[in-house]
Amino acid sequence: MTRFAVPGRIAVSEQAAVWQTATLTEIRRETPRAATFRLAVPGWAGHLPGQHLMLRLTAPDGYVAQRHYSIASAPDDSGHIELTLDQVPDGEVSGWFHTVARPGDTVEVRGPLSGFFAWPGDRPALLLGAGSGVVPLMSMVRHHRARGLTVPLRMLVSARSPEELIYAAELGAETTPVFTRSAPPGVAVGRMTAAHVAPILAEQPATGWEAYVCGSNGFAEHASRLLVAAGQPVERIRIERFG
Ligand SMILES: Cc1cc2nc3c(=O)[nH]c(=O)nc-3n(C[C@H](O)[C@H](O)[C@H](O)COP(=O)(O)OP(=O)(O)OC[C@H]3O[C@@H](n4cnc5c(N)ncnc54)[C@H](O)[C@@H]3O)c2cc1C
Fold first, then answer.
1. What would the pLDDT profile of 18-56 be if each residue is shown by its tens digit?
2. What are phi and psi of 4, to 5 degrees?
3. Cβ(237) to ligand 1 under 6 A?
4. From the centroid of its chain, how far is CA 83?
5. Whether residue 91 has its Cβ less than 6 Å from ligand 1
6. Which of 77, 175, 182, 184 is the most buried (most CB within 10 A)?
7. Which domains does the chain have, with CATH numbers?
8. How many other C-beta atoms can be found within 10 angstroms of the C-beta atom of residue 112?
């Protein structure tokens, strides 16, 4: 149990104006380990798909924990944003969200951060993610759909099993899932390989692909090696590591 385990008692800091109060309005389970948390942030300035924010929890004794989280929702003017968090064993912040947080609770957020991993929707995008690394990529997919964009977009996403595939019900023809431990009948089990990446790179749109890779350090290394081996220019690979 985390030291934030007192419902409704997260203090809102009056510190920097850049920190904004975010009120939890909805919790949706995605997989046994991941859930989506919808937050009302009335002063949210907007974001680009792929960006993240800094989230701050303050305990009643003043102890503060800050973590980065990618924004899962597409940019819109609803005054809400969504985050999807994996529950990390003994995780301070993800543990609070998964075991304590209830609609009506408040946290603080500051952002959006990082322009480097943003995709404004202006160029063909090849997205490679693993586990919760799919979160910022899903913001891109949702943006692509919401705006009816015609620029090519493909996503390869790796999960341990179909049950652990985040956003499974929402994924469409743009996405190829890769399962590392168990898969539906007739689908191979194993890591992402050149056989997944090369056919997409071969489709090569006129302006080439911009590749976005997100996940653990190990996955980021593996996926970027596959891309380079398949001919993707290194300077057109953008990587977000979740640590
Ligand atoms: C730019 C960026 C965006 C991110 N976006 C997301 C996101 O969209 N969704 C999401 O779920 N996470 C995301 N993360 C990871 C997130 O910031 C936290 O690291 C994660 O939620 C764990 O925090 P915690 O307080 O729960 O665990 P902590 O209390 O920090 O850690 C508890 C224990 O778990 C280990 N640990 C920490 N993180 C992980 C991990 N990811 N996997 C396995 N073990 C771990 C620690 O070493 C420690 O032993 C992102 C990270 C970065 C840098």
1. 899 999 999 999 999 999 999 999 989 899 999 999 999
2. -95, 15
3. no
4. 7
5. yes
6. 175
7. 20-112 (2.40.30.10), 125-241 (3.40.50.80)
8. 21
Ligand 1 pocket residue status of 243, Cβ below 6 Å: yes
Angstrom distances, CA of residue 214 to CA of 184, 201, 228: 24, 18, 16
pLDDT at position 10 over 50? no
Q: Please classify residue 185 by burial: count the beta carbons closer than 10 Å to its beta carbon, then call 0-12 exposed, 13-18 middle and 19+ buried.
A: exposed
Q: Which protein residue's CA is at the shortest distance from atom 5 of ligand 1?
A: 69
For residue 12, which of 54, 52, 79, 64 has the smallest C-alpha distance? 64
Which whole-number Å values give the CA distances from 197 to 43, 105, 137, 210, 221, in the listed order? 40, 42, 16, 13, 14
pLDDT of amino acid 8: 36
Which tens digits make up the pLDDT trace of 57-110? Answer: 999 999 999 999 999 999 999 999 999 999 999 999 999 999 999 999 999 999
Rounded to whole angstroms, the Cα distance separating 235 from 201 reads 15
Amino acid present at 48: L
Kindly tell me if the per-residue pLDDT of 14 is higher than 60: no
Give the C-alpha separation, 81 to 143, whole Å: 13
Nearest to 162 by CA among 177, 176, 173: 177
Nearest Cα residue to 118 out of 196, 55, 53, 167: 53
C-beta of residue 111 within 8 angstroms of C-beta of residue 44 = no
The confidence score (pLDDT) of residue 204 equals 86
